[in-house]
Every structure is written in C-alpha cells, then in structure tokens.
Amino acid sequence: MPDNVKGVSRRKALRAAEGVAGAVGAFGLTLAGYIKSATARASSASRPPGALPEEDFLSACVHCGLCVQDCPYDILKLATLEEPVATGTPFFIAREKACEMCEDIPCVKACPTGALDHDLVDIKKADMGLAAFLSPEMCYAVQGTSCRACYVACPVRDEAITMLPLRKGNQMVFQPTVHSAACTGCGMCEEACITPQASIKVLPRALASHDSGLYIHG
Fold first, then answer.
1. pTM for the predicted model, two decimal places
2. How far is Cα of residue 194 from the mean position of the Cα atoms in its chain?
3. Whole-angstrom Cα distance, residue 201 to residue 39?
C-alpha cells in the first residue's frame, strides 16, 4: 500500500479511536452529572409496576387513569403539565409515597392496553428502577449511628438491602448496601430515609447500575 494511503488510513483510525473515547468520556460525564444533580434535586418520577420501557409505555398508555383509580393506597397519580413526565400518564414520587408492592398488583390488572405488562404476576419481579446511595456521606448508618430505616422499610429485606460491616478508622459501622438483582425500585427505602435529603434514591436502572460506587452489588 502506498505511504500516502497508509497515512490517511492511520489518521482515520486515530480519529475513530478519539471519537469512541470521546463518547465513553461523555457518558461518564453525563452519569456523573446526573448523580450530582439527582443528589441535590427532588426525587424523580417512577412508573407503576409492570410499566413497559418508556417509549413503548408512552405508545401504549391511553391516559385512562384506571391504574390510578384501582391503586388501593392512592399512590399513583396522573401527571399534569407541571409534572416531570408526559401529561396524563401515571407515576408516583417515592419520597412522597412509595409503591406498597400489592401482591395482587391491581394497577396492572386495571390496565386495558398492556402499557402495564399483564405478564407481571409476582410483585417481587417488578422493575420500577434501582435504589442507589447517592450521598453515602449523609447516611446516618455510615456516620456510625444505629439507623436502619431503609433496611427495615425494604419489602424484600436481606435480599434487596443488607447491612454490611464497614470499618471506618477504629469504628465498625454497618453500611446499607443495595443488591440490584432483588431490588424492585418500589422506593420504600427512599420514603423511609430520615436524612433531610434522602441519601438513597430510586434511579432509572440503566443509569444506577453503571456506577459501582453507589453501594450496589449485582
């Protein structure tokens, strides 16, 4: 191959490599920015159990409100123009009122279109997000107190959240740790957290599971 062609090929390869590295770096910055902002801002909206992936959910949901009507704990509500999700679609804010994990999942049964997947029959298989410790330095348990509010509130305790021993200097503390495979994203831990701004929050699973520094185990 002529030298000038080789030179062009090398330049193309370098530009391609730089593009990949830039994309990876941009994702890292996006995730870091999301985590930083999520720590400081109000909790995000969560969909009801059984919700399809967001794009499919929005296509299937007809804004009928039947899931909201059949929620026995009045947790679900339909979004207004001021809400963080599409107007007329069902959601809940875990910090205000978490999903109660009804065994018969009435909201799913009420959905006439399948926007809430009727194949979900075991509430422990729900995937509403993933709890993550965004502010471990604010967590009272990590600071050395006996707080176990998130652990006690978890409906799948010892599966989704455990208390793991952690040595801090000369002190042994117990650190709440999320196990992603068992977490349903119900938000009971976030609702129960007693720090002024919840140190544990439910995030979209794709974002939360990409950072191993959030006290999440697979």
1. 0.76
2. 19
3. 8
For residue 184, what are its two tokens?
């349903």
CB atoms within 10 A of CB 209: 16
| 132 vs 197: CA distance, rounded Å | 13
Map tokens 């107190």 to a residue: 145
Sign of the CA dihedral running 35, 31, 173, 99: positive
DSSP 62-130: ----HHHHH-TTS--EE--TTSSS-TT-EEEETTTS-----TT-HHHHH-SSSSB-TT---GGG--S-E
Per residue of the chain (218 residues), give pLDDT as tens: 554 444 444 444 444 444 433 433 333 333 344 444 444 445 679 999 999 999 999 999 999 999 999 999 999 999 999 898 999 999 999 999 999 999 999 999 999 999 999 999 999 999 999 999 887 788 999 888 889 999 999 999 999 999 999 887 788 888 899 999 999 999 999 999 999 989 999 998 877 654 434 455 55
What three-state secondary structure class fits 169?
coil
